[in-house]
Amino acid sequence: MPLLLAGIATLVFIVSRLTPADPLVSIVGERNLTNPEVVAAAKARWGLDKSVVSQYFTYMKNLLHGDMGTSFSTRRPVLSDLWDRLPATLELTFAAMAIGLVFGVGLGVLAARHRNGWIDHIARFFALLGSSLPAFWAGLLALYVFYAQLGILPGPGRLDPRASEPGKITGFFTIDSLLHGDMSTFWSALKHLILPACVLGWGVVGIVSRLVRASLLDEFSMEYVRVGRAMGLRERTVVNTHALRNALLPTITIVAFAFAFLITGAVLTEIVFSWPGVGSYAVDASRKLDFPAVIGVTILGGVAFLITNLITDILYASADPRIRLA
Amino acid sequence: MSASGKRPTTVTRTRRVVSLVVAGAAVLSACSSSSGSSGSGSSTALVIARGMDINSLDPSRAYCDTCQIYLTAVYETLVGLGDDNHTLVPRLATKWDGNADQTEFTFTLDPKAKFADGTQVTSADVKFSWERLAGLQGAASYLAGTIDSIDATDPGTVKVKLKQSNSAFLAMANASYMGIVNSKVASAQGATADPKTDKAEPWFLANSAGSGPFTLEKYASGSELRLKRNDTYWGTKAAFPEVIMKETPKAVTQRQQLEQGAVDIAMQLSSDVAKGLSNADVTVKEVPSFNYVYLALSPGAKGGEKLTPKAREAIRLALDYKGLIDVTVGGAGKSQPSPIPNGFLGTEGLAAPAQDVAKAKQLLSDEGVSDLSLDATYPSLNVYGVDFTTAMTKVQTDLKAVGINLQLNPVEISVWADKIGKDGIPVTALYFAPDHTDSSQYVQYFGLLKDSQWQTWTKADPVPAEADLLSKAFAAKDDAARADLYKQLATAMMNDQIIIPLVNPNLFLASRTNIKGVTYSACCNLDLGKLSRA
Question: pTM of the full predicted structure?
């Protein structure tokens, strides 16, 4: 794992340095680009006056000590920035995954049980929309309908503009406000979470429901299902208790990867909803050519994928006794 | 199980689900009806929706529009700016004077002036703040770079000696970046004037050490900036106990939140968004600004060799300035004759630019230029409500009418910076907002002085006459004489045909009707200390 992360950091470092762009503009502003004193001071401060090779070894050495460097744009340690922003992304991701799983599995089951019926067609159409609609478009549409027109859900941000953030315990506003007994902030946080989580979760619904439907249909052709039905078991028992459990196995892998992807990939949703998470941080860092922040986010993405891989293996083993025995 | 003990039928279950959904929607709707004011934050706080561009909160390193608002609220300058955006008024200093050749300035500090921690503001703090600003070589260091020495022998008097005459110094002292820091507090946090030893920036991102009406409460990058009223403020205390600036980059969202009462002020509305506002609880003021977007022509850039003075003049004459204002800001702006914006010293009586296609064609013909094709790489930005792509597309259309073909190439500003620094760019666009109220900043930036920003980028030959005029303007104490010199400089820069202002957009200050004191300040954007709720 450390070697893999070092490889990721090296690759991103090289790519970022090959980009024909000048990061100094985000440090000193375009008005000072020809001011030799200001430029020299900025280069010295951020180590940009050293050779690329020297910058690389300094970065890797610091990385080994857990120092991801300081962001050019926020002027804070990248690790602190990620630590502050990760809970926002995790809260959104968990909510989106919950929506994606509940509705995805539910729709998949409904579609499989009513194969080729109108329920199946509607479910598949809904899933197709979720998978194919760009998140930014769905987000803008959701904001227009539920915020601007109907006014039943709040607009961008994690809280109402006048609300104060709850004292940080987990960094999840919904949980922290509950732990502080602050119901007003809890409602505000929950309402702000609904739209971005639904938009993000819709994509997951699309993936999960189609996978569950396909897997269930495969299971329905298995002998144990026919035996169950022949024994007079209720259809719900056959599906939910027996077939669904087996059908969910391939879903675990997809869900785990979807989760890891959302941690760093919820960029558009975070931008549309002004969600101060890792995704919006990554976009800002990329636009400003904030090298330390870009590499930091990439490493975080790598860690997320590695951890979810590990969790997937564990879940697989617990879900499928054959793997455990092997 | 149902009450009857029977399993619920499908219809019953469906009804239950529908009931639950309806109930959920009702609860959400009920909760959201108070969305504008829910949350545990104080309802008496002033909330401003802004796309924040903060690069630092350290007064010696910060350089951005939002930084100007923050620094003005937290770190006071020696001199303030009157409501006319021109007259200097007392702030930390009760009086000031400059010698005849404008090389020495003396400020008398207000004995009542105290920092938020109760300690006296002294000349030592001024010396520390300005020397640190110059020493750290941050983006605004040029403001203090002109200082040769500061005599802080008398705690109540600051004597500043400049390296050369500079009649703009008082205006520069009014710039928000020249705010005074509590030297004892800052030094204790590792603040020094040496960039190699200074360690205070992280502290300044979470704390403040000023004498202004507000102190920093909290800053969360990409989320919000919270200021708390300085209850021990030595002057007139601020009306609001707390000011919250929320990261709200989109103008449409700013407008919606303002209309719903979720925020009190939105001051980055584009003209189309602002003009659609018709809410009795919201007031919109359209005021002239000193910001502008300009076209820059670089004869020394690779591919710009044919941009001779006549060709550049032809480009200036080919542009439809009224059309540019219409397409970029819906008519809510002005054209601007010279790189010194309307309203600054030296701009009175300058003729507004006008389109003359026939003359433009004639000039190009005289110069033997036909089918001229030019690279127009520009930063893909949207500032002050002006979308650069819209503006450049209009420029492209206008120039095509006189036989000049622009190759538009919008890029990220970091890519643009790399390109203009290496090969230069024949035709590009950029923007400018003032740091202070003196016209000299425009000459130093746009004039063809040796090593000025645009002389370097355009690789045009320096014009010694402009340097001479600026020296005279710096040495002149009398405003009338300075106005005359700056008018000559403005005319000279117009004749350079290097910088062509495209649009000087108006600013839309939108606020809830019960918010008083919302005005645009040339030095500081918005003075939070002057705001109140009726």
Answer: 0.86
